[in-house]
Amino acid sequence: MFDTHLIEKAQRLLTLSGEKHQRVATAESCTGGLIAALLTEIPGSSVVIGRSFVTYSNRAKHEILNVPVDLLKQHGAVSEPVVRAMAQNTFDMTSAHLTVAVSGIAGPGGGSKEKPAGTVHMATATENGVIHKRHDFGDIGRTEVRLATVDAAMDMMLARLEA
Predict the structure, then answer these.
(1) Three-state DSSP class for 33?
(2) pLDDT tier for residue 104 given thresholds of 50, 70 and 90
(3) Is the pLDDT of residue 94 over 90?
(4) Could you give the CA distance from residue 130 to residue 62 in angstroms, rounded to a whole number?
(5) Bridge-based pairing state of the strands 49-54 and 24-28
(6) Looking at residues 105-124, what average pLDDT do you find?
(7) Residue 4, helix vs strand vs coil
(8) Given the DSSP bridges, would you call strands 98-104 and 129-136 parallel, antiparallel or unpaired?
(9) pTM tops 0.90
(10) Rounded CA separation 128/147 (Å)
(11) Neighbours of 57 (CB within 10 A)
């Protein structure tokens, strides 16, 4: 299902998490659960992965992850404040030691001048706080944006685990 490059990253993340006795949770929008799917592709992943959330709509982000409606209205789902809230609230609601949240515009087309297709915001949360990154992958195709997001999210989580 996933290429070798992503499988190797997932294996490394699960190995590191297991060695540190840390659990991981995801909060996904534009990837529709692909990060969790990648991680659970590895046998034994249930030791590290307890739960994940796919919150594609604003309503789901609010109802499931407690992202404030005012934050969604003011900044939009694809924004730093929203993914920070998604990552932190997932951390607060679960027993995970590391969470990742992603929200973006996969395309093709869509978006706006400020947030064109290929714009993705992601954040990780640990007990040491939340880190955010914005990626501008470009209008490279829906599948390509989603897979690039998965890859970048893996890198971001690995960086937090390796710190």
Answers:
(1) coil
(2) very high
(3) yes
(4) 19
(5) parallel
(6) 94
(7) helix
(8) unpaired
(9) yes
(10) 28
(11) 12
Strand partners, 121: 103, 134
Residue with tokens 């390509």: 144
Can you tell me the distance from the alpha carbon of 107 to that of 100, in angstroms, rounded to the nearest whole number? 21
- Residue 15 has a CB neighbour count (10 Å cut-off) of 14
- Give tens-digit pLDDT for 4-60: 999 999 999 999 999 999 999 999 999 999 999 999 999 999 999 989 999 999 999
CA distances from 95 to 23, 51, 60, 62, 148 (A): 7, 9, 21, 20, 27
Angle made by CA atoms 36, 32, 126, in degrees to the nearest 5: 50
Sequence letter at residue 28 = E
What the chain holds in terms of domains, given with CATH numbers, is 4-162 (3.90.950.20)
Counting other chains too, the contacts that 49-54 makes at CB distance below 8 Å and 24 or more residues apart are 49/23, 49/24, 49/25, 50/23, 50/24, 50/25, 50/94, 50/95, 50/96, 51/25, 51/94, 51/96, 52/25, 52/26, 52/27, 52/28, 53/25, 53/26, 53/27, 53/28, 53/90, 54/28, 54/29
